[in-house]
Amino acid sequence: MSEVVKNRYDFVFLFDVKDGNPNGDPDQGNLPRADVENQEGLISDVCIKRKVRNYVMLRHECKLPYDIFIRQDAILNKIIDASKGTEPEERQKNLCKDYFDIRSFGAVLSTGKGAGTIRGPVQFTFSRSLDRIYQAEHSITRCAVTTEKEAEAQKKRDHASTFGRKTTVPYALYRMHGFISAIDAIKSQFTENDLELLWEGLINAFEHDRAAARGEMNPRKLIVFKHDGHLGNARSGELFDLIKISKANNLPRKWTDYMVEIKRDNLPKGVQLIEKL
Known about the structure:
2 domains, eight-stranded antiparallel β-sheet, about 25% helix, single chain, alpha+beta
């Protein structure tokens, strides 16, 4: 039986995208998400959590205790009501025991017999690109048609018809920050095995999530700060400032156009730096 996580962690995850839409914005016609003020690219925390969930589903085939609560076609109230226990607190405890994503990210159980909020120990920020992104738009065509009317129209034009549009980011490097609370880990029983699976899920998040729309997405760095105690030995912002990223030119188009500097000499006492990638 793996021990519950007893140390606080903070981490920095760097990943990039080439010729793809890493996270479409439904409020903007599915354009790549961007900060409206400075046009830096954004990817929601929910998007990255989804990829981690999907990896765990593939890795453990939804078998206990690594089942996934938030997944396609799941009827959540049925899952909640089927959990063991007569009181909401008891049901929540058993849901944490059986579902990796509840144990990790928590859950808002707004209805059902286990109604309540489970606060997860693992939290992600929005990922933000290091530079402004260009939202490139591309027309796409097809040679096939669906009706006789379209066939006649295409003969007159003597060329393929416009089918739709897709949008991409030519290249962008994104930075995400994460936090793991040892205090909340005790509440949800988030274990050391769960922690290793989380790192594994982040590193492999894009390998089984390939799609033409997403282009090429790759993890580049996963830098973890492990604190000696459960409360932590330094502020997270102080640790994140130790990771400095510079670029070789004003128009980076590949990972090697960036340089990552880790100021190890300034690492606070009681904090260990671990490069997972």
